[in-house]
Amino acid sequence: MSRPLITVKTLIAQSREGTAIDLPADAIITPAAQDWLQATRLPVRRNGAGARVPAAGPTVYVIGDAKDPSLQTLLPILERRHDSLTFLPCQGNLAGCLDAVRRMCEGLAQCSQRRGIVIVRAGGIVSCVANRNPKVRAAVLTRPSDLYGLQKNLDINVLILEQERLSLRQMQASIETFLTGKGALNPAVEAVLAGTSAPGAGCTPCNGAK
Hints:
Number of strands: 9
Number of helices: 8
Shape: elongated
Low-confidence stretches: 50-56
CATH superfamily of the largest domain: Sugar-phosphate isomerase, RpiB/LacA/LacB
Order of helices and strands: EHEEHEEHEHEHEHEHH
Mean pLDDT: 83
Strand content: 15-25%
C-alpha cells in the first residue's frame, strides 16, 4: 500500500478548515510543504515522524509570506511542476525576508541553473541586497512585458514580483516564462557588471534593463 503524499496544497486546504493539521502517521511530506508548515507554525496532530521526499537539490527557490493569499495559490502550482522546489518564508518582516534572500543567494551560487522567485510588496531593497552577490542577477518586474528584455539582456536568475503591481494571473504567467525561458547576458551589460558586482559595490538596476 502506497504512503500518502502531503503537498502544500494539502496543508493549505486543511488550514482553512480548522486550527490544526491532521496528518497520517506514515505520510510523506514534500520539502516545500515542510517549509510551509514550519513557516505557519500551525499545530500538527500526527503519530510518528514522516520522511521528506528525496530531491537531488533545489533548483527553484520561492520567497514570500506563507499566509499571503497570492503565495498560497501560486506555491502549490509551482510545487506540482517543479519537484525540487524550496520555500523560504519571509517570517512577516524585512529582517526575515532578507535572511531568506541571503540563503537563496547562497544556493544560487552553487549552481548556475538554479532560479529564485521573490513575492513581496516592495522589491527595491530585496533587489539591491540580492545583487550584492556576484553570481546573482535580480530584477523587479514592473510590467510583464519587461520580462523578455530582462532575460535576453541581463539573464536574470532572480525574479522579484511586487504584489500591488501585478495580478495573480500576471504573476503566474511571468513565473512560468521565467522558469522555462532561456536567458542571455548582453556583452555591454556584462562589461558593466564585471566592475560593479563585487561585494560592497553598487547594485545593478532594480527595475529592468533598457
